[in-house]
Design brief:
Layout: H1 8-19, H2 36-39, H3 43-58, H4 66-75, E1 80-82, H5 87-94, H6 102-123, H7 130-155, H8 193-210, H9 221-234, H10 238-250, E2 279-283, H11 293-298, E3 309-311, H12 313-316, E4 329-331, E5 335-337, E6 347-351, H13 352-365, H14 371-384, H15 396-410, H16 417-424, E7 428-431, E8 437-441, H17 454-459
Antiparallel strand pairs: 1-3, 2-6, 4-5, 7-8
Helix pairs in contact: 1-6, 3-6, 3-7, 4-5, 4-16, 6-7, 7-8, 8-9, 9-10, 9-13, 10-13, 13-14, 13-15, 14-15
Length: 470
């Protein structure tokens, strides 16, 4: 039997629809479509599909860890070295990614699978009872908007890239309706960076308006505001970034954990009850649903990891004396981060500390800078780390260096570096096993953009490839 692989953009919702009926009928007749009226008929059905969207986002190809690790590996300038057997990570670290890199393909596939399930929820939103309708729409819009933002950052040029403009540079395809038949597979083209950003913002604004401040482990209005703050910061729309970050900070819903180490799950800790007061949004992982891919790539063998990513002296030099964040490492004939020492630990996608860092950057860079406010925000984070208040910079350029340094010690290994170096217009390096620089890449190098996966372009000739890839 010949097995055909179809584009995940087209078939993601088919998977969800078929799965709902597979246990009810053993002898399923071959068909090329699913009757939606039979598959999803009630409010409860739609809410069940929404849970499927969270499950899709949790997979290790996306927010289960690979989105964060792949982008960090591509951006790394020698803070860590990879001595493992996954060629996908070696390619990323060397800035020599191929069009068949399976980890990059996994980000694309899992991202569009999540979007597809969200589209299915939104296509049936009128079936949801009035009590839950706004919440269900808000959660689906939150997931879809966040995924679109993360995909366009990885597969498209940065918003501020001067090789073209956001209105001309190619981003990723925008797909807003579910595909329900093989014949209806959508051979989509790529939308511009500006169009994808606009879609993400539109989705997240609906989510922000529809969701409550509290929603258990699911998306909240604060989570939507936090992603909007990220988007506006990447656009260098500092006024809006400050506004959105301030909404989260002023909500009173979140707070920094007293000790930095306690924000991260240690081995053996119960995972299903572990969301902290600092977690704005975390994907829930258990030994029933998979494992934390950040543990796999970063943790030592003693804590379930593969012990293949060694942290270098260059990274440790970034910490000030007395900084407790420098204690988050484990020595096993090499240094390994301990942030992800629980194999089944939840992956925190948005932490409250990031909101202070976003607001500090926005305040220091906006048209009428607020340096005192920026310093106050950074000092909240620094106080938790056990170090003294910063010496404030006296210029916008100086403040960029201050904020960047703080982000590199607060947020390492959490998936922020690629977007940061592009926003700060900093170069990065590939290094050899001894830490020697092999090559240098400017922030807008096409080598710092993921290729469109070969499988996707084979299935859909309308997808153009990024510069430098075949």
């Amino acid at each position: 039997m010949k097995i055909h692989k179809y584009s995940v953009i087209a078939l993601s919702t088919l998977v969800m629809l078929y799965s709902s009926g597979c246990q009810k009928q053993l002898d399923i007749k071959p068909v090329d479509q699913v009757e939606q009226n039979d598959a999803i008929k009630t409010s409860k059905d739609v809410q069940g599909v929404l849970i499927g969207a969270y499950t899709a986002a949790t997979l290790r190809g996306l927010y289960g860890g690979r989105l964060q690790s792949t982008t960090d590996f591509l951006a790394d300038d020698g803070d860590f070295s990879y001595f493992g057997t996954f060629n996908e990570y070696t390619e990323l670290s060397d800035k020599a990614v191929t069009i068949v890199n399976q980890f990059v393909e996994g980000v694309w596939d899992t991202g569009y699978n999540t979007i597809g399930v969200c589209n299915n929820v939104l296509a049936h939103i009128d079936l949801v009872d009035e009590v839950n309708k706004k919440r269900v729409e808000g959660e689906a819009r939150f997931l879809r908007g966040m995924v679109y933002f993360d995909l366009v950052k990885a597969f498209g040029r940065d918003w501020n890239d001067t090789n073209g403009s956001p209105t001309t540079n190619q981003g990723v395809p925008i797909v807003l309706t579910p595909t329900t038949t093989i014949a209806g597979i959508q051979k989509v083209s790529r939308n511009t960076v500006a169009e994808v950003y606009a879609q993400a913002i539109a989705d997240l604004k609906v989510a922000e308006a529809n969701l409550d401040v509290s929603n258990g482990v699911y998306a909240t209005s604060g989570a939507a505001s936090a992603v909007l703050a990220r988007i506006y910061l990447q656009q260098k729309n500092y006024a809006e970034a400050e506004t959105e970050a301030s909404k989260v900070i002023a909500s009173g819903r979140y707070s920094l954990i007293e000790h930095f180490a306690d924000e991260f799950q240690y081995p053996g800790q119960a995972t299903h009850v572990f969301n902290t007061a600092e977690d704005i949004f975390a994907v829930q992982i258990s030994n029933q649903s998979g494992f934390n891919a950040l543990n796999e790539v970063y943790a030592a063998v003693a804590y379930g990891g593969r012990e293949e990513t060694y942290v270098n002296d260059q990274h440790f030099a970034r910490y000030e004396s007395g900084d407790t964040r420098a204690d988050m490492f484990f020595d096993d004939d090499g240094e390994f981060t301990t942030k992800f020492n629980n194999l089944f630990g939840n992956v925190v996608v948005i932490r409250f500390a990031e909101m202070y860092l976003i607001r500090a950057e926005a305040r220091s860079q906006k048209a009428s800078p607020d340096y005192a406010g920026a310093a106050a925000d950074l000092n909240v984070v620094r106080k938790r780390a056990g170090i003294s208040n910063i010496v404030p910079a006296t210029s916008a350029a100086g403040w960029i260096d201050v904020v960047e340094r703080e982000r590199r010690v607060e947020l390492p290994f959490e998936g922020f570096r690629l977007a940061d170096l592009k926003r700060y217009k900093k170069s990065t390096n590939s290094v050899d096993g001894d830490g020697n620089v092999v090559d240098t890449f400017p922030w807008n190098s096409p080598k710092l953009i993921f290729p469109i996966p070969k499988r996707e372009r084979d299935a859909n000739p309308n997808l153009t490839q990024n510069e430098g890839y075949q």
